[in-house]
Amino acid sequence: MKIIADYHTHTIYSNGKNGKRKHAIGTIEENVQEAIKKGLKTIGISDHSYRHLLYGLNRDSIFEMREEIDRLNEKYKEIEILLGIECNILDNKGTIDMDDKIREQLDYVLAGYHFASEPTSLRCLLNHGDNFLLKTKRSTRYNTDAIVNAMKNNDIFMITHPGDKGDVYIEEIAEEAKKRNIILEINSSHAHLNAEQLKQIAKYENRLMIGSDAHKPFMVGNFSLGLETVKNSGIDIKRVENIME
């Protein structure tokens, strides 16, 4: 069994332009070097997008990142280096922090819900608190609608850690992802998708990938938790698209 790709990794660009947010460490090149060391064929750089109150890249940094990745692709011929982004799903309408100018620079888009993403309304702000403290059925409904509508309204490659920061009705998400050929992530830094969720959605035969969600270079390609989750779920490892037997 061999890991061939990791599409979910972060760098110092997630810390903003002045670097004061300290959300991740390591440069793009350090992530690439770690990926090569671990024998990956593809490495994706997917820093947090810009509408978050605590961390995320500066909006204009994406152009600098594109230039750096193009240069590194010339330097490291043995690996494919892609530029992605992890957008915040901002509300139950499925709004994500993305615009056309940024999208033109990217190879793919990830999207997930995060605490402290910029609220678009009072209801959205209250839902952050509900997710963090109360975890009511109202918040589960809101979270589910947010992810489903994000998939309906945006060009998304993969949904990251569904259900991690707030409960969701995972079958509704799986059904929509299947319709739109969107990958669901088994996150190796968080406990979602977890084994019970995978059992619950097995009938939909969704596209699945494990992501390291690395915030330090040594974590790139670290799929230990994800592989354990797959094993405990009973699903066939062949269904995980970035694993080769």
Automatic annotation (TrEMBL):
Protein's UniProt keywords contain Glycoprotein: no
InterPro entries per record: PHP_dom, PHP_phosphatase, Pol/His_phosphatase_N, Pol/histidinol_Pase-like
SUPFAM superfamilies noted in UniProt: PHP domain-like
Protein name as it appears in the record: PHP domain protein
Record PANTHER family: PHOSPHATASE YCDX-RELATED (PTHR36928)
Catalytic activity, EC: 3.1.3.-
GO cellular component terms, semicolon-separated: cytosol
Pfam families: PHP
GO MF term (any one): phosphoric ester hydrolase activity
Enzyme class, broadest EC rank: hydrolase
Keyword Hydrolase included in the entry's annotation: yes
Keywords, ordered alphabetically: Hydrolase
All residue ranges annotated as the Polymerase/histidinol phosphatase N-terminal domain in the record: 5-91
